[in-house]
Amino acid sequence: MRRVRCARALLLCALACGTARADGAGPVWTLHRPGHGTVYVAGSVHVLDVARSALPSGFETAWREAEQVVMEIDMDDLDPGVAATFVATHGRFTDGETLRSLLGPERFARLDGATRALGLPLDSVAPLEPWAVALALTQLQLLKLGLDPNHGVEQQLTAWARRDGKPLTGLETVEDQLGALDGLSYPDQARFLELTVDEGDTMAGELDRLLRAWRDADTATLERLLLDEFARMPTLYGPLVTDRNHRWLPQIEALTARDDDTLVVVGALHLVGPEGLLALLRKRGFTPELLGEAILTPQ
To answer: Cα-flanking dihedrals φ and ψ of residue 194, to 5°?
Structure first.
């Protein structure tokens, strides 16, 4: 997902049970079921800049061992037109509502100033529902900071998969992802867009802290920062994170019954918290272990 608070949160991951360091291996965990292969679960950063695009060593280790790769969506067969079609079909007002009437004068004026500052005429997005406008703004904000999905974890691993001929599949579709936003009520969408506008000025500093913590596998810092991201709007957490985690859990669990090794790569917030994938896997009897020489300090 691409959005200021949510996108920053989904960029990165944390381990809910305590502090961990892996000597540069990064946020990659292993799952073992006796008599079967290994599943590597990695927290991804969806966008990176060129200077920080080199992946932590844990990703390379997991890549060498894995026979297949599973991401949130199948990046290898991704059709860019699917997202555009979804927005055109589902992301436009059809009931007489408008951005101006939904946001009100004050929020609409702030939105107008934010879009102008990014070179995006408000008229060009005025027919869109707030969630779609928030996505457009976030993409421009990230690009302004030098962050590009083309340098993100998923894009790099997709290129590796094509190079090495490894099969790549997805846990869900683009329609599933965008549908989670489209399903928000208009008031929640308006709040979503408001946060996107208001936090544009502080985005650079917060992203720097998050990216450093992600690369260092500083899970205590990541957990604190990432869970705080949703504290201001908890209604987003369910459809964007928790609900999807529960849909993915059976698919990941099934991978542990295979005889070959698999690398699973998901947006990083999906690994943190009491409803994060790592906690859910523990409840199912698994013991995720941080790749490398980890030091775990239970809270």
So the answer is: -60, -45
